[in-house]
Specification:
401 residues, Growth Hormone, Chain: A, 0% strand, globular
Length: 401
């Protein structure tokens, strides 16, 4: 088959891979599942901290693996780690084994995080179609969100019957994703030549990638902006399971609420490229934090908390699709997976700090109080971000004059 055709086929294969690799019936129930096995909110926060410490330490090395040895190899290894982590979580009964499972879960995300986006962007770039990336990324999110809908509806229902069945089905589908990950064609653009000086290749890759970010500070500022938003939304995403359980919702109802967020996000993602054309980058950078803060406080103080939760996930989708495109446009192919891993590393750094604090506040006071604290932090971020953007706008106008 023609090489360009194989690269173009990566796009449709990636849609299939996205839905298979993200159908996880444990996604909406794992915190409830572990709470049922005796874990407190503080311990749940610590387990997520284990995940993010592992991710923080391993993001850049795994990104370098993808840039040096191939995005396809990194993706295959990630699927293997995901299967192992799910199996351990099913079999384990104490904090130590749960923590080991979370280490493997983190590694599965690390191996996929930079590699997956780099594989698709560079496939498009090699055939001269990288301008389609934002639209294709939005389409991919439809499959991701569809997987979420399936996961939360089926997982919530299965949890009312048997947590074990939910885990076993996840392992079976995960095996299918692992097999399908072998089918991708590796793009040659940006691949490192590693025949010589192999012992120094990782260090050289890291130095080159850091230099790219240093020479273009906008990459770093967009990464930090995105990961702060994702930290707020991720904390809500996980702790809301227990919040809703405390409100009297069973797993099936919680599954429906979470499925609704994924349906909304699936409808939002394909429209991001159109929205971006209207409000541009400046509009997204101004409106996203405002929407996030409104939704955080809506969850905390409104009886329609689930409506604000759905809106929060839609806002996150706009940020993810749009800014991921902005960042990719500024990154050389040979450093793409490594620099995208910087982004995930920053996210893990924020989560290491914020996630366990929310858990401890929830244990000591209430989850409602903890969410209000997140809302207060969101207001601070909103004010700082707005001031910085206004200053940048004034500088740009001065340069134009």
């Amino acid at each position: 088959m023609n090489y360009n055709v194989q690269l173009r086929n990566n796009i449709n294969k990636n849609y299939i891979y996205t839905i298979l690799s993200n159908i996880d019936l444990t996604r909406g129930i794992w915190m409830i599942y572990l709470a049922g096995k005796g874990m407190s909110l503080t311990q749940l926060g610590l387990l997520e901290t284990v995940f993010h410490i592992t991710s923080f330490l391993m993001e850049v090395p795994t990104g370098a693996v993808a840039d040096i040895f191939g995005r396809r190899i990194s993706r295959i290894a990630g699927r293997a780690m995901s299967l192992l982590s799910t199996a351990i979580l099913l079999a384990a009964n104490d904090f130590m084994w749960f923590a080991i499972s979370f280490v493997f879960t983190a590694l599965s995300y690390n191996l996929e995080s930079g590699a997956g986006d780099a594989l698709i962007y560079d496939s498009l770039k090699e055939i001269g179609e990288e301008d389609k990336y934002m639209k294709i990324s939005g389409n991919k999110e439809v499959f991701y969100q569809t997987a979420g809908v399936i996961s939360f509806l089926a997982g919530g229902y299965m949890a009312t019957k048997s947590y074990g069945i939910a885990f076993i089905i996840t392992i079976i589908i995960g095996t299918a994703a692992f097999m399908q990950s072998f089918s991708f064609k590796e793009p040659l653009i940006g691949r490192k030549q590693v025949e010589h000086e192999r012992e120094n290749i990782f260090l050289r890759q890291l130095k080159e990638s850091i230099e790219v970010v240093r020479n273009n500070p906008r990459i770093g500022s967009l990464i930090i902006f995105t990961e702060i938003i994702l930290t707020f939304t991720t904390c809500i995403f996980f702790y809301l399971q227990n919040f809703l359980k405390g409100k009297g919702c069973n797993e099936a109802v919680i599954g429906v609420i979470y499925a609704a967020t994924f349906i909304t996000a699936a409808l939002t993602a394909p429209q991001v490229h159109r929205l971006e054309k209207v409000i541009k980058e400046q509009g997204i950078l101004l409106l996203a934090p405002f929407a996030t803060v409104v939704c955080l406080w809506g969850i905390a103080i409104s009886k329609y908390h689930f409506v604000f939760f759905i809106a929060l996930m839609a806002a996150e989708e706009v940020v993810y699709v749009a800014i991921n495109d902005y960042i990719n446009r500024m990154i050389p192919s040979e450093n793409r997976a490594t620099i995208l891993s910087f982004s995930s590393m920053i996210f893990s750094f924020f989560m290491i700090i914020v996630f366990p604090v929310v858990g401890m506040l929830g244990d000591r006071y209430s989850l409602n109080f903890a969410i209000k604290c997140l809302g207060g932090a969101g207001i601070v971020f909103l004010l700082i971000n707005s001031v910085l953007l206004l200053k940048q706008g004034r500088k740009s106008r001065v340069k134009i004059r």
